[in-house]
Amino acid sequence: MLARLENVTKRYRTTEGVRDLSLDFPAGQIVGVLGLNGSGKSTMLKLIAGLLFPTAGAVTVFGGSPRGHRSRTVFLGETDTLWPWMTPADASRFMEGLYSDFEPVRFNELLDALEVPRRKTKAMSKGERGRLRLAMVLARSAQLYLLDEPLAGIDLISREKIMTSLVREWHTDETILLSTHEVAEAEGLFERAVYLRDGRLALDVPAETLRQEGKSVVQTFKEVLA
Amino acid sequence: MKRFGTLFWLEYRHSWIWSVALLGSLAFWAWGIKQVRVMDVAERLGIRAGLLAVACAIGAVVLCLMIGRIRAETRNGQYQVLLLTPPSGYAHIGARYLYAAATAFAYFITIGFLYWWIMALAGIHLDPTTLVELILAVPFYAISVSVLPLLAWTLLLMVFISAYRISGPGWIPGTVMLLGTPFAFRWLVNGILRITYTLPGWRLFANAPAALIERFGSPDPETALQVDNIIYNGVPIEPLLIMLALTVVLLAVAGRIWQEVEA
Q1: Tell me, what's the ipTM?
Q2: Distance from B72 to chain A by nearest Cα, in Å?
């Protein structure tokens, strides 16, 4: 099991991000983490990444603490996290210096495929920065990818490029947890859909089961979360 | 080592404008020194030395602002990226601190050169040993007892404030630390003063008063006695040892707390 949440509750000062959440994520899945705003998607991904610590319950990644295995995990947050002075060359140096599984050649191929300009991030559009961030994480050979809204605020063409890269770069021994509001666009990717509502698990279902029932992920989204 | 080097490079890329601005500001101070045109040589030397003392204080504040930008990184999300990188909190803290300390040494050694310059302008010629002490040993001593622990404290405070801000009463430890600082500082200074000169002193800058006496004439017997006394004792070694040890402790705590930061 790559990641496991056991009765996890994360309490902020006045609210709860997730409550009594239990989930297992084995190797080799692309999982859609779906829910409305404030449903706990980002909190769940941050807990698995080790950016947050649970108030109650336990989060284990590769059998240990999330922070202890951060070199085997990729987290792509929803906020723009690159330094404004950074160019793709700087990003490559940064990643190569810190991650032994980062492949610069693959990174450059991804930059070309995603059409990322070779200039400072402060001179890039939001879509270009999003594609650069995605190239940085996909150029690693990690086993667990936590992608929190990588499509948010990005134009249609960039979104398509990102989705194509995700499919092309995914290996069967890797697990991707993808949180997105663009459910319809990402539907074809998902093998499993985890629906969250008010910080609790609303439904955890294989996409194949939904298809056999003649339902789509989007349709189920509306039924479960409306 | 490669990872530490990358973190140091990141800090350099992130902060080089601060360093250049700080070192460049010394050109302004040099210009300011040249503008002091009081007739009396001793008074002119005093005013110029005072200007450099102001430059030292401002430099320390700027260095603290430079190293304390973790809050801005937290807001902008870059802290998230750093927290997820494989190097430990100690490596992150160490790289940041090393860069700030290197900038501090460059800045204060240059100020040592400026002190030498204003002395030369006043007609005070130092022997080679005193000159080396003025440019290297005096900045080392001054930085070690003041700026280095101050930078470590700033780093610890910022990490502390960032660490528990998301969940729980994270503001409490940061506020307590901030409010308690003057009391802790007073206690520290009193403690150091009580044990000062328990160990043999460091005869740093011992020949400088001789150069001053040579330039400005023999002082009265009472002053000469005081000068002899200072020369005999040298500077106390206890503040240096205590502050360096305190710096290491503060950095170690900051590195440990880094592991607790939520983002």
Answers
A1: 0.86
A2: 11
